[in-house]
Amino acid sequence: EPEVTQTPSHQVTQMGQEVILRCVPISNHLYFYWYRQILGQKVEFLVSFYNNEISEKSEIFDDQFSVERPDGSNFTLKIRSTKLEDSAMYFCASSELREGKQYFGPGTRLTVT
Amino acid sequence: KNEVEQSPQNLTAQEGEFITINCSYSVGISALHWLQQHPGGGIVSLFMLSSGKKKHGRLIATINIQEKHSSLHITASHPRDSAVYICAPRNTGNQFYFGTGTSLTVIP
Asked: Do A42 and B99 lie within an 8 Å CB cutoff?
C-alpha cells in the first residue's frame, strides 16, 4: 500500500537555525498538510496546501514557517529561525480529495537546543 | 472558540468488550476525522465523516451534526486496539481541531 514518507526521522538543531522537514506524499494525492505534536500534548494543525498554494493555516503558522512543493514529489516545511518551543513531532499528511481520508507520515522529531 | 471534548480520557477494557468513545465539539463543522495514534507515535486515519455512519471491520463511527457529537465504537475489542483515539473536527474554515484523545488499553 502506498505510504507517506518523511525525512529525517529525527533532527536536532540549535536555536536560531533554519530547518527543512521533508515529506513525500502519496503520488496521486492533491491535498497536503502539516501538523505538529509537542510532547505530551495534542496534535495541532499547521497548514494545508493545494494547487501549489496554502489553503488554510493556523495561528501557529506565522512568518517563521513556510511550505513548498519544489518538485512533483516533495512537500517541505521550513522553519526559518527555530525556537526552543518549536521542539515537537511534525507530521505530514496527504489526501486525494478535500473531504477524503488523510494518510499520515511517520513524523519527524525536531529537537531545538 | 473551537472546543473539542472527548470522553472518557482513559479506558481499560477486557478483550472482547464493546467500546464506545465520545466526541463533542462546539462549532459548526464540515467533517470530522477519527484517528488512531499508536504507542510509538504513528497516526492512522480511521474515518472521515460528515454525516450518518461509517463502518470498517470492527470499527463504527457515527456523527450527529445537529447535536455536535460523534462516537467511535469498537466491537469485539482486542489488545492490538490499544492506542490513543483522537477526534478532529474540521471547521467551516477547513481547519482541523484535535481532541486530547482517549487512551484505550485492552487487556487479554
From this structure: yes
**Phi, psi for A106 (deg, rounded to 5):** -75, -10
Nearest-angstrom CA–CA distance, B43 and B50:
20
What DSSP character marks residue B96? Answer: B
pLDDT of residue A45: 93
Asked whether the beta carbons of residue B42 and residue A43 sit closer than 8 angstroms, the reply is: no
d(CA B89, CA B30): 8
Cell output for A76: 517541505
Peptide bond between residue B39 and the one before it cis (omega within 30 degrees of 0): no
- Judge contact between A45 and A110, C-beta under 8 A: no
- Is B50–A42 a contact, with Cβ atoms under 8 angstroms apart? no
Only one residue has cell 477547513, namely B94
Residues of B in contact with A93 (CB under 8 A): 43, 45
Q: Compare CB distances from B45 to A56, A99, A104 and report the shortest one's residue.
A: A104
pLDDT digits (tens, 9 = 90+) for A17-41: 999 999 999 999 999 999 999 999 9
The closest CB to that of A106, out of B31, B33, B42, belongs to B42
Phi, psi of B49 (to 5 degrees): -140, 150
